[in-house]
Amino acid sequence: MRILDLFLQSSSVPLLGALVVLLLVYFVSSTRFSSQGEGKEPPGPRPIPVLGNLLQLDLKRPYITLLKLSKKYGSVFTVYLGPQKVVVLAGYKTVKEALMNCADEFGERHPLAISHEENQGYGVIWSNGDSWRDMRRFTLTNLRDFGMGRKACEDKIIEECGYLVEVFKNFKGEPFDTTQSVNYSVSNIICSIVYGSRFEYNDPKFTSMVDKTNRRVELFGSPSMQYCVYIQVLFLQLYNLFPWLGMFVGDRREIEKINTWINKENCVIFSRLKETLNTQMCRGLVDAFLVQKQNLEDSGITNSPFRDESLMMTVQNLFVAGTETTSATLRWGLLLMAKNPEIQDQVQEEISRVIGSRQVQVEDRKKLPFTDAVIHETQRLANIVPLGLPHRTSQDITFQGFFIKKGTIVYPLLTSVLYDESEWEKPHSFHPAHFLDKDGKFVKRDAFMPFSAGRRMCLGEGLARMELFIFFTTLLQRFRFTPPPGVSEDELDLTPRVGFTLNPSPHKLCAVSLM
Q1: Distance between CA 434 and CA 374 in Å, rounded?
Q2: What is the SS3 assignment for 79?
Q3: pLDDT tens per residue across span 44-65
Q4: Model confidence over 156-205: pLDDT tens digits?
Q5: pTM
Q6: How far is 460 from 122, CA to CA, in rounded Å?
Q7: Contact at 8 Å (CB) between 7 and 16?
Q8: How far apart are CA 153 and CA 167, in angstroms?
Q9: Is 61 exposed, middle or buried (0-12, 13-18, 19+ CB in 10 A)?
Q10: Is residue 477 within 8 Å of residue 514, measured between CB atoms?
């Protein structure tokens, strides 16, 4: 059984004994799985006491199991993750209807217990209510003020892309892992917007911050943390009663150490920025937050959402969301070019014909339809956040004929949108023609939803789109990407690394200079 195998691989005998006892206690005191709804509830596989449908899920890749279950039970169905009832939404039309047409009803975020311990309802990802609205509005306004979607931001990305090109050149065509250098480049864009300055790639504080942030995301996909997360997500009530269960997991302790280190380093940066703060000339989002906080305090407002905890969590949210997903997508793009040399030929021919040797700019996107299609198809196939982040219903709702109770956890299965067989001609293949018409012009597709949709869609979508276009196009203009010597294109592995997000498995590429 997958759950038992995963548990035995990652947990200690004391934890096993403690968990068995606690599960028995919970089982005795728990209510029945069937709820007393006011209407027909979404169908789903029959759960068993305590474990729910846990034994039916592939816990390493649950989105695959949920996708299969949607074929049997339909686009709105129920699974029990432990004793916790969850409604899953599958397919483009259903996810769109819920997140966009019923945005208020499906608009709350369900905070995972493991995340809530750290953020305590602050920030822009896991918060709800007035705190979320205030921080999202502030963050979006200041992302725009400090360049998102504007020429100033484009210049920052172009500058950072130049540093990345030099790093790639230094490998002189020899095989190398693109992970760190791409992560540093993308993270530096966030640094410029948040702190008001970039960092050198050999700055130990900066590299440690980026590496530890990515390590934290990676740990969520480790065997022991997978189980720890599922205790907290799937056995949510049990975990809330006994949060010390996580203490037995080694990776959990490492995450706590990373969190402490990141918080400490950010506090140092915040203090330095506060000491040199010029209220008339904000350098970045942190400055703007400090000014707003000071103005509210001077006005005698004591219940302001602009608190130190909000700043810390908002900055961390931006780094995780703004680095991991974009850098992973870019690395998938380079890997897919090495895997599909004929498509790489077409991209480079178009870039050479339209751009030549000059620096690519955002306004060139419309002149490069094939390249733009390749970038979009990379995002679709990469499927970076397959489950989406969990939502929660804010009120009772009858949706597509099914009654869903207020407070129900809802997963919009984004992989079912990006791989929807009724929307995509070749959903499981790398097929840039998905985004091209018969004349070779770029076409938008409604089912292209890698940033989610509705009230909770990614607030950095504009920044990510700009980064992906400039980074990808510039790198393909300057380099030919190939497998290492002795490795064929067919041998390049496209199996994603298991984790909170879907990154490429560890690999090396050769970047052969063209200019």
Answers
A1: 9
A2: strand
A3: 999 988 788 888 888 778 899 9
A4: 999 999 999 999 999 999 999 999 999 999 999 999 999 999 999 999 99
A5: 0.88
A6: 18
A7: yes
A8: 21
A9: middle
A10: yes
